[in-house]
Amino acid sequence: MAEKRITIRATRFDPAKDEAPRLQSYDIPFSDDSMVVLDALNYIKSHVDGSLSYRWSCRMGICGSCGMTVNGTPKLTCAAFLRDYWPGAVTVTPLNNFPIVRDLVVDMEDFMHKLQSIKPWIIRKQEMPLGAGEHLQTMDQIDDFRQFSQCINCMLCYAACPVYGLDDKFLGPAAIALARRYNLDSRDQGTLQRLPVLASSDGVWECSFVGECSVVCPKGVDPAKAIQQTKLDTTVRFILPFGNRE
Amino acid sequence: MSAEAGASRATKTYRQKMSAGWWTQKRHYFLYMVREFTALPLALWLLWLLYEIYRAGRGPSHFYAPTSTAFVTFSVICLAFALYHSFTFLSLAGVILHFKVLDKPVPSRLIVMSQFGLWLVATIVIGAVLIGFGR
Asked: Least CA distance to A159: which residue of chain B?
């Protein structure tokens, strides 16, 4: 029986030589139905072309580093099975909307700055000494923000967001979802510190609710929900005289 | 998403640009654009309604009911867009609204159903008033 094979088309871009990215095809064995796109890239790197550059780490949908565009859709390549595309070819390109550093590697600097700007940590008006014990929470209080705490910063939502693609000043889905995660945390008292960033012209109001961020999110975070709820919250805070509570 | 020229020499990166037809590349994007576009025919129809009110305000001699085929067709198209716009808006209400009753979050499905229920009630009331005045 003939060996099963699959064609992988991957973006190649060498900033020292190339003016623009191009696609390069690789015909590789598809030996195992459990193979994912990341396996295919690893095969290419190990056996065909060692110069192919891409990011990956955990190989199990936790680290968020292997996000790429697979046949036009942002995906974690460790969770994109080749069997879902075979016998068709698989086209792997870098995440949309980010500058390409080399081949399938994108520049994450902009996202990192945005992530930092929303202060994704617990802010207290006055820190308790360690000896005072933990900040206790009920399960119901955890449930308030649990969904938004599942983000792995894979940036698929930014790649799927046309608003960010058209205007990269937009704070973006993951950063806003994470801000909401901390604003909903009963231990946190930093909502008013995050509001100027969230409610700015480049914050939640830039979003026009395309919703694709939530469709592509591999962890079910639903950033679109976080953004719309934050819009409602900022409006209530603005309108009601007692709205600017913490 | 097209990869158009725009390589940045300073940072040695290639900046990707969105093509003008980005919204045709995915069904979800296309439906989003349709949803946004529905506001335009609605706005046009409401402008027409304002003009009708202005004409009616000038007395019976200045008013005549628009019954042309073109206007009826335009109105039916506007109605379809209005229904789609309302459907998407009310469906999304479950995502946006979040509140608790007795310390328990209200399920989004219940919020959506209540929105559609209110919509139905409002439609019946407004319809009854208009038909009542028409007689």
From this structure: B1
